[in-house]
Design brief:
elongated; 166 residues; 77% helix; mainly alpha
């Protein structure tokens, strides 16, 4: 089971890296075209907007699986030690529920966008697939949140972190 999770993680990392690389290449080409040739890439704003959403939502399951979301521990001081385990279970359940609701809302929005043929402004790129990708990402994040609540964060032991080296 764990090897499947690691394969999914590596796949998501690869997809995110490819989206980011494509966005950087597009931005570079657009700037070069705009500054040197005087001809920007038509619709680059639309494409960049879509790619930014793809990068952010491809990264969401990775951040969730690593347990790397921003956390505030103000309630930890108010909750006594005996109740801390329950507090963590409640927090984990809330994260899973919120991510599942967001996934459901993106799915509904994607279905609506498909029904009304919602498109981007300049290139008229259909938006429904983007919303479906965002829904899938949030659903995968909800599953990752559930998994780390049961087993702990998915941390790669081969990763090096500069902040830990200081």
């Amino acid at each position: 089971m764990l090897s499947v999770a690691w394969k999914i993680r590596r796949g998501v990392e690869t997809v995110m890296a490819l989206f980011l690389l494509a966005m950087v290449a597009l931005t570079f080409a657009d700037v070069i075209g705009r500054r040197l040739i005087g001809k920007p890439i038509y619709g680059s704003n639309d494409i960049t907007e879509h790619m930014m959403a793809l990068v952010v939502f491809a990264g969401l399951p990775l951040v969730t699986a690593a347990g790397a979301h921003l956390t505030i521990d103000i309630m930890d001081k108010l909750v006594g030690k005996p109740w801390m385990a329950w507090w963590r279970v409640l927090s984990a359940a809330l994260v899973v529920a919120v991510l599942a609701v967001i996934a459901w809302l993106f799915m509904r929005h994607g279905l609506n966008a498909s029904r009304i043929s919602e498109v981007s402004q300049a290139l008229r790129v259909p938006r429904a697939p983007l919303y479906f990708f965002m829904a899938a990402s949030c659903a995968l994040s909800a599953l990752a949140a559930l998994a780390i609540a049961l087993t702990g964060p998915m941390v790669d032991p081969t990763d090096t972190h500069e902040e830990e080296a200081l």
